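pasting for the record
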Amino acid sequence: MTDFFIIDRENTRLDALLTEKLPQFTRSHIKQMIDKGNVKLNGKLVKAGVKGKKGDKVEYEIEEVKPLEAKAQEVDFEIVYEDQDLLVINKPQGLVVHPCASTKEGTLVNGLLARVKDLSGINGVLRPGIVHRLDKNTSGLMLVAKNDLAHVSLADQIKNKTCKRKYLALVNGHFKNDEGCIETFIERDKKDRKKMAVSDKGKVAITNYKVRARYPRFDLVEFSLQTGRTHQIRVHCKMLGHTIVGDDIYGKAEKGLNGQLLHSYSITFTHPRSGEEKTFEVGLPKYFEEYLKKIEAQ
C-alpha cells in the first residue's frame, strides 16, 4: 500500500512523524521502512533522522505481510499466562528465541507457531510475536504479542522503561556494595563481533543490582534493567570483575552447567487492552537450585 501526507509542523524528525502517522508500527519498524527506501520526502530518499518542514510531502509504502516462513514444531516451554492479546512464557535455558543463520529450526518461534493460533506480524516472518528476547542460555519470563495492538504497546513499555524486568544471577566473587546502579555505554566488541563490550560510546546501558545472598565464593544478585541492551547484565558483570557462573562467553564454562546461571524471574507491565498492571514471577530452574544447594553445603 502506498500513501502520503503533508507535514503540518516545523523541524520534526521524519521517523517521529511516521510513528505518529502509523501507530501500528514500532519506531524500529519505521526506521527499517526508511532504510529500505520505502519512504520519500518531497520525492527523494532520505535518512530516518532528517527533519521535515511544514508543507513537505512524505510518501510511504507499506509492504504486504509475507506468510510466515518459520514452520510449526513441538518445542518445550511453559506458558505462564495467556489471553486474547499476549502470552507470558517461561523460556528454558538452551532455547533460541527465533530462527537465525546458525539455528533455523527448533526455536521458541517454531514452538509458538505450533501452540498459538495468532501472533503479531510486526517483526516479520521469522520473529512473529517476539517483543523482546532472552539470550539462548538465559532462562525465564518473556512477553509474546498475539496481535499488533499488543505488540506496539508492549514494545513501547520496554522502550519507555515502564515494563519492569528482574533477574537473578549467581556471580563469581563478591560485589563491593550490597546494592547500586551500573551505567555505561555498550557497543559491539571490535575484536569479536559475537560479543558486546563496555565502551566510551555506543548505547547507554543502565543496570540496578541488589545482593540477595552471599556465599564463600559467590554472590546471588538480583538485577533490574532500565535499558535492554544485548548481553547487558553479562557485560556489566564482566566489567565489575564478577562474571556470571557458567558464562562461557564473558567468563568460563562450568562443569555440569550448560550456560550462565541467569534467570528472568519477574516481569511487570501494563496490559495493552485493560490498562491493568500485571506482575508474574517464576521460581529458579532445577539446575540453578541444585547448584545453590551444592555451594551451600561446601
